[in-house]
Design brief:
The complex is a heterodimer of chains A (109) and B (336). Chain A is mainly α. Chain A has four helices and no strands. Chain A is extended. The model of chain A has no long low-confidence stretch (mean pLDDT 94). Chain B has an eight-stranded mixed β-sheet with strand order 6-5-4-3-2-1-7-8. The longest helix of chain B has 16 residues. In chain B, 48% of the residues are buried. The model of chain B has no long low-confidence stretch (mean pLDDT 96). The chains are: A mainly alpha (109), B alpha/beta (336). Chains A and B meet through helix 3 of A and helix 8 and helix 10 of B.
Chain lengths: 109, 336
């Protein structure tokens, strides 16, 4: 048994358990935030997939890869989005080296 | 895989509740027909293509063809009852030698007349004239194009099929099909190329219109999203690819009670090539005849035994009530 099991994805709607009010509010917000608005459902699904990959969430990767397939998004488009996420993660890492560089420059003789 | 084996597999879905149980839970079981609005006639299982998702298991090797007496009986019933839509399917309907005659007779009944054509046959003799036959009789054409991407579409339907469909669509556009105010309609069926459910019909329709117009110069009217039901060759694919359990599970978790109210079998009667009657084309391919196995043939049609019949349900029917719902006319729920 692994900590992450694919079938656990089906349990997600039940996270309202023990905190019904907060859980329901979350799903209401989730639905509004991921549904079509000024951005299309396709665009939002690609954003969600990219976040899922960068945050290493296997459930969200499964759910949003499937959703992207369902919306007719091609493998090439999804891979391009993954590279955007990868580039952002690299950029975020290197941008934080600014803090490191600042400290080094302050403390070194 | 024979029908008995398919039904055995569909009956063993582990922890997942049967569809009849889910419908019972929402107090809608059993389902009863509400008359006949659509007579769907399967004119035979012969087809020039052998698509990987085909629930009919159609192909060039199939020999089942609807005879003229069965088609004549269909016309007799259509003229006796106010059935609004005649939906001709197959296999390839064009390969039935009586199709042209049937269209000529059916059009006199002044009903909505649909032919489900894969279009590729319309590019070759002796079938080319059907482009004109369809246009002259204002037949609505429904064709399959699983994806707007050639590589994906061809993975399901065979190499070169996408290009042929596009070529035929251009010719049909030049005759007025899919063009504004022409009165000639051509609709496209999208079904997923793999083990997942179709997304929003509205979103996909928008994407299809844009891509097919800008990349292929092709017009069409509506897009119908169809969920692949685990029947026939698609069931084979699910099992061979190790996706069967996940797919059934996905269908079950997407169960939509609203779609049960609109499920197509409530208003459809499906006629097999040999005249046997079914609740839908999928039940037909599983040999599930109307009224729980009665061998009612259209040759001894009895409206009283059909109009409010109890619908035969099995677990493949999850496909019609998952997500936005699915039917031969696309999604079945509002906001699809």
């Amino acid at each position: 048994m692994s900590y992450y099991e694919q079938k656990d994805l089906a349990d997600f709607p039940k996270i309202t358990e023990w905190a019904q009010k907060e859980g329901n509010k979350f799903f209401e917000y989730y639905s509004a935030a991921t549904g079509a608005g000024k951005l299309t459902e396709r665009e939002k699904s690609l954003i969600a997939l990219t976040v899922a990959i960068t945050q290493n969430c296997p459930y969200c990767i499964d759910a949003y890869t499937t959703k992207c397939l369902s919306l007719g998004i091609s493998s090439e488009e999804m891979m391009e989005a993954a590279h955007t996420g990868a580039a952002m993660m690299a950029g975020v890492t290197l941008a934080h080296s600014t803090q490191m560089r600042k400290i080094i420059k302050k403390k070194e003789m | 895989m024979d029908t008995r084996e398919q039904l055995r597999i569909l009956g063993r879905i582990g922890d997942i509740p049967s569809l009849s149980r889910r419908i019972r839970e929402i107090n809608m079981f059993p389902l009863y027909a509400k008359g006949i609005e659509i007579l769907q006639i399967n004119t035979g299982r012969c087809c020039n293509l052998s698509c990987r998702h085909c629930h009919v298991d159609a192909g060039p090797h199939r020999t089942e063809i609807m005879s003229r007496p069965v088609l004549e009986k269909c016309l007799e019933i259509l003229s006796s009852f106010p059935i609004s839509t005649i939906d001709i399917t197959g296999g390839s309907p064009e390969m039935n030698p009586h199709l042209e005659w049937f269209i000529g007779e059916a059009v006199r009944l002044n009903r909505r007349l649909i032919v489900r054509s894969n279009l590729t046959l319309l590019l070759e003799e002796p079938y080319r004239h059907f482009m004109d036959v369809f246009a002259q009789n204002k037949v609505e054409i429904v064709t399959s194009l699983p994806d707007y991407l050639e590589t994906k579409s061809d993975r399901q339907r065979g190499a070169g099929v996408f290009a042929m469909v596009i070529k035929a669509l251009r010719e049909l556009n030049s005759r007025g099909y899919g063009m504004k105010n022409s009165g000639l309609y051509i609709d496209i069926v999208h079904n997923p190329v793999g083990a997942y459910l179709p997304g929003s019909q509205a979103a996909l329709e928008h994407e299809y219109h844009e891509r097919l117009l800008t990349e292929q110069g092709v017009h069409f009217n509506q897009l119908f999203c169809l969920t692949n039901l685990p029947v026939g060759r698609y069931l084979d694919y699910l099992i061979e690819s190790g996706n069967f359990e996940d797919y059934i599970s996905a269908l079950c978790h997407s169960f939509n009670p609203a779609a049960v109210k609109n499920v197509m079998c409530l208003t459809t009667l499906s006629v097999g090539w040999d005249g046997l009657l079914y609740d839908c084309d999928f039940n037909q391919m599983l040999g599930l005849t109307v009224n729980n196995g009665s061998q009612m043939n259209i040759m001894n049609f009895d409206m009283d035994k059909i109009k409010n019949r109890k619908i035969v349900i099995n677990n493949h029917c999850y496909g019609c009530v998952a997500g936005s719902g699915s039917s031969c006319q696309g999604a079945t729920t509002v906001g699809n």
